[in-house]
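Narrative summary of target 7.
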Amino acid sequence: MKISELISTSPVSVQTDDSVSSAARLLSRRNIGVLPVTDADGMLSGMVTDRDIVLRCIAAGKDPESTCVGEIMSDRVISVSPDDEASKAAELMSREKIRRLPVVRDGRLCGVLSLSDIARSRGFYMEAARAFAEISSNVSRRSGRDRT
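Modeled conformation, tokenized:
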């Protein structure tokens, strides 16, 4: 099954020059934990999580009203194409220990694929379960500014 069959075509995102406080409100309003970050032309620049907001902005003593998302986002982004297979995405999520992947075509954001999208798709329950188990394990867990 292609990733394009699993994602919505209107992803929620923020731009690099949006304030951290506006990103936090959007995360809260949508009840989500991560937002893709794009530039003014819609090109994917990074990802920002609720954890990024807490650790890289609030705990660092920065003002969320005057701090731009681009200053705290994770800029190393792992993504997939809408034409990729869902099994490839599940394998990538498992290997990289991430639960959401931005979906890009020609560098532009066109969706976000979550582990739950894969789990809900027919025929990929085992791949999703295996990826979730890998993501949740503490073995070789990585962290840092460049992770999403």
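The mean pLDDT is 85.
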